[in-house]
Amino acid sequence: MVSILIVYFPNCMKFSNAASDIYVPSGNSPDIALKQTTHLCVAAHQDDIEIMAYSGINECFDSQKNHFTGVVVTNGAGSPRTGEFAAMTDLQMQEVRKKEQRQAADIGKYNLQIQLSHPSADVKIPNHPGVAADLKTIFEACLPEVVYLHNPADKHETHIAVLLRCITAIRSLPANSRPKKVLGCEVWRDLDWLSDSAKVGLDASGRPDIAAKLLEVFESQIKGGKRYDLAALGRRVANATFYTSHQTDKVSALVWAMDLTPVVWDSAITLESLVESHIDTFKNDVSSRIARLSRS
After folding, report:
1. What do you get for the CA distance between the two ends of the chain, in Å?
2. 188-201 confidence digits (pLDDT tens)
3. Could you tell me the CA-to-CA distances from 115 to 71, 73, 105, 257, 278 in Å, in that order?
4. 181-185 and 146-150 as β-strands: parallel, antiparallel, unpaired?
């Protein structure tokens, strides 16, 4: 096995939380790594990145021109735990999850992995100074082609809070510095209910061995009582298979996403109005189909 040089640069990039972790698997400068980011995922918890943004990880894997950066906003202290992790304190669990996220960065050959280590309670506070400053620092320092965020129909409150803070940070940028594409991805609630015209399909078929390893590395979750590995991989296959009823599968694994780009470019479009529009479309589609097929 080829060893990977791991170097920390304590005097470079700074964040508000002393427990934050900046990890560059290549040993490059964090500032340089952040600037060369082409694919950026900002997620709430450790392992969210690997569930929602695998298509970006795969696209950047061994690429000379594409570079994937992952950001985890919270410290992961509140995760459920059983078995060998049952007796761990929140502080111990934070360290375990931080280490697992670094291992995922190695497996996926990430350009950069940042863990901001904020408590979930702080992230849920609108305009929390530390959270806001950290996200602004990240979004100002890179010009990614695509940003992967949580989707606004997700049912996990911390996910929604992270999404909201990210939207605020992106909107604060000058127009020419905002990402070209912002996608809200599946984690806690799938997006199969979106109309086909609204779905953004993220191909997760490539390198299935890497896709599995990226999820399996989070033993604190899997052995702790949550089979996120099986669930995430199974949902991707289900998305690909159940996408169309009258055509053969074009890919073997799909993650659905919602296009959030209009929200970051037009302040008049809110997340609420965007989701309500999609829900109305879904409601009308179901109702009209039932009504049409009920007529004699």
Report:
1. 69
2. 999 999 999 999 99
3. 6, 6, 11, 23, 32
4. parallel
Quote the CA–CA distance of 154 and 7 in Å, as a whole number: 36
Can you tell me the mean pLDDT for 4-30?
76
Angle at 60 between CA 169 and CA 15, to 5 degrees: 35
Task: Tell me which residue of 70, 61, 15, 73 sits closest to 40, measured CA to CA.
Answer: 70
Q: For the beta carbon of residue 227, count every other beta carbon within 10 angstroms.
A: 13
Among the listed residues 150, 147, 195, the one whose alpha carbon sits nearest the alpha carbon of residue 170 = 147
Q: In the beta sheet, which residues pair with residue 259?
A: 183
Nearest CA to 115 out of 28, 8, 26, 230 is that of 8
User: Tokens representing 146?
Assistant: 């695509």
Under 8 Å between Cβ of 257 and 185: yes
Give the pTM: 0.93
